[in-house]
Structures are given as structure tokens and as C-alpha cells.
């Protein structure tokens, strides 16, 4: 087969698997798991073959016109460059691991067939975004992911948290998609085509008339999809979905789509210095604010959710300084260790029976109950904290190195202010990232108090997936230096300055957090917190659904569940309460948008019921009263009718005489 044929099959196979899984889910349930795993796994193998054939060389383009649309045609186009083929491999790998993990995690879930089909459709949509060479086809995959996320986040629809989170995720991302759509049309109008290669050619020739406006409109969609400030609030709440869904959304799909989109169209954004500065500020606020929030969260999944937001801030920061190679490099390494973190968290939640770190800190020997999750999560947290030689060190230092070059004025047209903004915020976030990673590890695995509950061994497939993802979390950074062709031929070796600063700050953050933890543990009373008691025979998904339903502090202000052994409280001080609530951004949105909309809806309902309905009721009541009056006049007595007729004639005669007399 040709490379383009293989590339077409990569998103097509998961789509066919999703369709077949939905059709056979009830009639042939035995085929559901093979249909969930095998198409995605095969697509991953094909994605690897496409990457090998493409080899990081010249981009492969192929297109066929879908339908004549006039001056701006819509085409089914492929654009396979080094970034596309590598990201496709990541998507396939993480999706395959999630599907395999889910066969054990949700083995007794009655809604597993629809869940697995939606995961496959989600994967297919992301692969379509990655390989697409036409902006309209890319938009189709973009929107399908939004719909799938709504259903997957709301998988546990019995819980109000899951229902609210799914609706919030859908509405917030759609809020960004509206200007994103306008930006795509404006870009196509200026470039004369939706083809990405044509658009980039138009940018190179200076044919864009409104680059700043287009870039800012597109950034709104990216902020919603990739959970960047100020449209990031949906992502922490999305943790109400199953843990494998969180791993897929955070590691390889949905949130990665926005970063990948900017990387694909970076010349469009680079055409406007103002847009790059806006992107840099957005990245800086996102990464520092989310790191502070992560340091105050009690729910283990919400810690990882805010961590994802911060790492996405690193990626958008790299794009703000014009280095898409560093951005995609961090996207790839982050995808591996963040998927590992979420899937390991799922194992820990099943073992502990709760999402709460405060509860885990009061459980002794939890790490001995889940040795596979303990060791693999340790690897992933070291990668997250950017400790060498783990993958996160190389990719994060590539971002900081790019920011250093931009700050020094060595990045061409990139404003130096953007470089300084990204560099300073990146270094601050490095110390905060190491702090919340250390805090999570200490609270989850170094607890004291009652012995951790024993729910038996975890399913083999779940533990096996953890070790598969541990390999790239450890080794990807070491091998990426051998693949410069896939990254525009740009070397990704860390610079000395940022390496020393970044690693030094990470070590400081970890050591300070450890010292704070030692101090707080000597003062904490070891009284067991009300953890959820999971049954040994219970399905992991059921355990998580119970944890979501009963562990209220995980979805509210953690001040309601104070843990004196939490080093985050000591480190943040009075800022802790605000950071735990996400700096009250949801409350601000509620005051500015939700309450006015609800008040307007109440006003409309009042007008509809009390004004409009009054006219409608009156329009029906008047004829009814008239009919009643006429019905009473119908006595059936001929003499009465003749009397009324004569009286009426007399009245008319008198009126006629009076009118004639007045006229004379």
C-alpha cells in the first residue's frame, strides 16, 4: 500500500470499530472488547508505518475535492509532516493503552459497549485532526471530539457532578469554537482556500490582510479546546468521568488538539507580534495559576488535571516564542507520562476506595498494595517534575531554551517581551510543578495511620499498561535527540543555563515540599478520614463512581476537609483557600454570565406567562363568553325571536330617522 492509503486507514479503522461496536453491543456482546481494542491497535501499527515511511522528510500531500463549493473548495486532504506522523503515533499508543486498560477497569460496567465505541470515535476524530490537510475537515474532527467528550465525561450520569461536568465541558469549549469558526472563515477568505498548504503559502507571500484579528479569533478556540486561561475551568471538573477517559483527554486528544493546531499554523500567528504576546501572556497566566491550584487540590485527579493545564501552558509558551519543535516535543513526552499518571491514579483510587489525598495520607502501606502503580507513578512524577534523565526534563528544557533565545532576541520576529514572559513564568512553574508532584507522592504513598484496605490484586491488563507507558516516560527524552528531522531539523538538546536553573528550581521545590511535609506530619492527628469503603469484588469503575458521588470535597472547596498533614497548606498559607477553589474563577463567571443569563431567562418566563399567555388566554376567553351569551339567547321560542326582531327593527328605524334629521 502507498503511504497515503495507510494514512487514510489510520483514522478510518477506529471509526469502523466504533460503528461496529455500537451495532453489536447488544446482540453480540462478546465482540465488543475485540472491536474496541483491535481496530485502535491496528491503527497504531499503521501510524508507526506511516511515520517510518515519512521519515521526517518532505511533507506528503494528497487531496481530492469533496464537493464543489465555488471559489473556496473543500477537499479531503492529507498533510503528513514530521509533527503529524509523530503525534498520530502518540494518539494511537495512548488510545490503545486506554482501550486495553478499560477492559479491566470497566469490566462489569453495563454501559461499556457505548463507552468503548465513543473512545474509538474520539480517537478517530483526533487522528482526523492530526492528518487533515484541509481546515474544514479538521473542523469536523474538532467538533466530533467535543461531542464525544460530552458523553464520556458524563459516563457516570447518575451523579450530579458528572452531569454538570459534561455540560460545562461542552458549553465552555463551544464558547471558544464560535470565534474559532469565524477565524477559519476569515483565514480562508484571505488565503482563498481551506487547504493548509495554500494558507501557509499565502502567509509567506504576505497575502493575509487581517493577521492579528484572525490569530486572536483562532486563539479563542484553542483556549477552549486546550484548556488555557480563561477557558480552562472545564478541565478540572471533567475529572468526574472515568479515569481512562481522563487519561485519553489529557494525554493525547482534545486538549492536545489546540496545541497541535497552532503548531500546524504557526506562521499565521507569527505574522502578528501582538498575537504572540497575547499567546505568551495566556501561557504564563495558565501555567503559574494552574500550578498554584494543583498544590492545593485534595482530589488526586484534580491535581493531575491542573497539572495538565500547566503543561499545556508550557506548550503554548513554546509556540509563543516561535518554536513549534519544542512545543510538539513536550506534547509527545507529556502525553506518555500524563497518561501513565492518570491510569496509575485509577489503580490507586480502586485500592484506596477514594479520590481524596487527605484520606490516602491516613492509610499506611498503600504503596505495598499497588506496587506496580507505585513504581510507575514515581517514574511519571519524576518526568513531570523535569528531573533528568526522564522525558519531561528534555522536553521542558527545550521549551525554556526556546524562551531564552527569544528573550535574547535570537528568535527572529518574535518579540523579546514574549520570550521573557515565557521564560520567567516557566521557571516559576518549574518549582511549583516539583512541589505539587512531591506533595502528591508523599500524601498518596507515605501515609500513616490505619492500614490501607486490601481489595486484592489489580487486573493484569491494568498493570501491564502502566509498564508499557513507563518506557517512553523514561526513555523518550533520550531518543528524541536522534530524531531532529521530525522536528524541522531543529536540535532539541537542552541549553546549559536553563538546564541548571530548571533542574535546580525543581529540586528546591521538591525538597521544600518534603521539609514542609515532615513538619506537618509531626503535628497532624492521625485520625482516619471518612474514606469510601470499596468492596473487594467491586469493579474499579463502580468504586470510582462511588468515590465521585460521596467524596464531596473533591469537587468543592477543600477547606471543608482540612488535612493538617498537607504540606500544601503550609506552603501556600492564606493563598491555599483561594487556590483550592481555582481562584474563584467559576464564581466570577457565575456572577458575570450565569446569573445574568438566568435572570434574563426568569424575565422571559415571567413575560411569557403573565403577558403573552394573558393575551392568548384572552383571545380564547372572549369568544367563549360571546358564545355563552349567544347560546343563552337561543331559547327556541318563535314569539321571542319575532319580538327581538321587531324591537331591533324599531331601533334601527329610530337611528335612521335621527341620522337623516341631523344631516338635514
TrEMBL record:
Residues 132-403 form the NADH:quinone oxidoreductase/Mrp antiporter transmembrane domain. One of its GO terms (molecular function) is NADH dehydrogenase (ubiquinone) activity. Its EC number is 1.6.5.11. The keyword Cell membrane does not apply. The keyword S-adenosyl-L-methionine does not apply. The chain crosses the membrane at residues 6-24, 36-56, 76-100, 112-130, 136-157, 169-188, 200-224, 245-263, 269-296, 303-321, 327-352, 373-394, 420-443, 464-483, 495-517, 641-661. InterPro entries: NADHpl_OxRdtase_5_subgr (IPR018393), ND/Mrp_TM (IPR001750), NU5C-like (IPR003945), Proton_antipo_N (IPR001516). It is a multi-pass membrane protein. Its main location: membrane. It comes from the Bacteria. PANTHER family: NADH-UBIQUINONE OXIDOREDUCTASE CHAIN 5. This is NADH-quinone oxidoreductase subunit L. It comes from Streptomyces jeddahensis.
Amino acid at each position: 500500500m502507498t503511504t497515503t492509503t495507510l494514512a487514510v486507514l489510520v483514522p478510518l479503522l477506529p471509526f469502523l470499530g466504533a460503528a461496529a461496536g455500537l451495532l453489536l453491543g447488544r446482540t453480540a456482546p462478546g465482540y465488543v472488547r475485540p472491536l474496541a481494542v483491535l481496530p485502535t491497535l491496528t491503527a497504531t501499527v499503521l501510524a508507526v508505518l506511516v511515520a517510518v515511511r515519512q521519515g521526517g522528510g518532505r511533507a506528503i500531500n494528497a487531496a481530492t475535492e469533496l464537493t464543489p463549493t465555488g471559489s473556496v473548495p473543500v477537499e479531503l486532504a492529507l498533510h503528513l509532516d514530521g509533527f503529524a506522523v509523530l503525534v498520530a503515533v502518540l494518539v494511537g499508543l495512548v488510545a490503545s493503552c486506554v482501550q486495553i486498560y478499560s477492559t479491566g477497569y470497566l469490566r462489569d460496567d453495563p454501559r461499556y459497549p457505548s463507552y468503548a465505541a465513543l473512545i474509538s470515535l474520539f480517537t478517530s476524530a483526533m487522528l482526523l485532526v492530526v492528518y487533515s490537510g484541509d481546515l474544514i475537515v479538521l473542523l469536523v474532527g474538532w467538533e466530533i471530539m467535543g461531542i464525544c467528550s460530552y458523553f464520556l465525561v458524563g459516563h457516570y450520569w447518575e451523579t450530579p457532578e458528572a452531569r454538570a461536568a459534561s455540560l460545562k465541558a461542552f458549553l465552555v469549549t463551544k464558547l471558544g469554537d464560535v470565534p474559532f469558526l469565524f477565524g477559519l472563515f476569515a483565514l480562508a477568505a484571505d488565503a482563498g482556500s481551506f487547504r493548509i498548504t495554500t494558507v501557509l503559502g499565502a502567509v509567506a507571500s504576505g497575502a493575509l490582510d487581517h493577521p492579528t484579528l484572525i490569530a486572536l479569533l483562532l486563539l479563542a478556540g484553542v483556549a477552549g479546546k486546550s484548556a488555557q486561561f480563561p477557558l480552562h475551568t472545564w478541565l478540572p471538573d471533567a475529572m468526574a468521568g472515568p479515569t481512562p477517559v481522563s487519561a485519553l483527554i489529557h494525554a493525547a486528544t482534545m486538549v492536545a488538539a489546540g496545541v497541535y493546531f497552532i503548531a500546524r499554523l504557526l506562521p499565521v500567528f507569527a505574522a502578528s507580534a501582538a498575537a504572540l504576546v497575547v499567546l505568551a501572556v495566556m501561557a504564563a497566566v495558565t501555567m503559574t495559576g494552574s500550578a498554584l491550584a494543583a498544590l492545593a487540590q485534595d482530589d488526586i485527579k484534580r491535581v493531575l488535571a491542573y497539572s495538565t493545564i500547566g503543561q499545556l501552558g508550557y506548550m503554548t509558551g513554546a509556540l509563543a516564542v516561535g518554536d513549534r519543535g519544542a512545543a510538539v516535543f513536550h506534547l509527545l513526552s507529556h502525553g506518555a507520562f500524563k497518561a501513565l499518571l492518570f491510569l496509575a491514579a485509577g489503580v490507586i483510587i480502586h485500592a484506596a476506595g477514594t479520590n481524596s489525598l487527605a484520606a490516602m495520607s491516613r492509610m499506611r502501606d498503600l504503596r505495598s498494595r499497588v506496587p506496580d502503580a507505585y513504581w510507575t507513578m514515581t517514574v511519571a512524577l519524576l518526568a513531570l517534575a523535569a528531573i533528568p534523565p526522564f522525558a519531561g526534563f528534555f522536553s521542558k528544557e527545550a521549551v525554556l531554551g526556546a524562551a531564552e533565545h527569544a528573550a535574547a532576541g535570537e528568535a527572529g520576529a518574535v518579540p523579546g517581551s514574549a520570550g521573557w514572559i515565557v521564560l520567567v513564568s516557566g521557571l516559576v512553574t518549574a518549582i511549583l510543578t516539583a512541589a505539587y508532584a512531591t506533595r502528591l507522592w508523599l500524601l498518596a504513598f507515605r501515609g500513616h495511620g490505619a492500614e490501607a484496605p486490601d481489595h486484592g490484586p489489580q487486573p493484569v491488563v491494568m498493570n501491564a499498561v502502566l509498564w508499557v507507558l513507563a518506557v517512553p516516560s523514561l526513555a523518550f527524552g533520550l531518543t528524541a535527540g536522534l530524531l531532529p528531522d521530525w522536528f524541522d531539523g531543529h536540535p532539541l538538546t537542552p541549553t546549559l543555563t536553563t538546564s541548571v536553573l530548571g533542574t535546580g528550581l525543581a529540586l528546591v521545590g521538591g525538597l521544600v515540599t518534603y521539609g514542609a511535609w515532615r513538619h506537618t506530619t509531626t503535628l497532624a492527628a492521625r485520625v482516619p478520614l471518612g474514606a469510601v469503603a470499596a468492596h473487594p469484588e467491586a469493579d474499579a469503575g463502580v468504586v470510582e463512581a462511588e468515590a465521585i458521588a460521596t467524596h464531596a470535597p473533591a469537587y468543592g472547596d477543600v477547606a471543608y476537609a482540612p488535612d493538617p498533614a498537607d504540606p500544601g497548606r503550609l506552603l501556600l498559607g492564606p493563598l491555599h483557600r483561594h487556590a483550592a477553589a481555582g481562584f474563584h474563577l467559576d464564581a466570577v463567571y457565575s456572577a458575570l454570565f450565569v446569573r445574568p443569563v438566568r435572570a434574563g431567562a426568569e424575565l422571559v418566563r415571567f413575560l411569557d406567562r403573565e403577558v403573552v399567555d394573558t393575551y392568548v388566554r384572552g383571545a380564547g376567553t372572549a369568544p367563549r363568553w360571546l358564545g355563552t351569551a349567544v347560546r343563552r339567547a337561543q331559547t327556541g321560542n318563535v314569539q321571542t325571536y319575532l319580538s327581538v326582531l321587531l324591537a331591533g327593527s324599531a331601533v334601527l328605524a329610530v337611528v335612521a330617522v335621527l341620522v337623516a334629521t341631523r344631516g338635514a
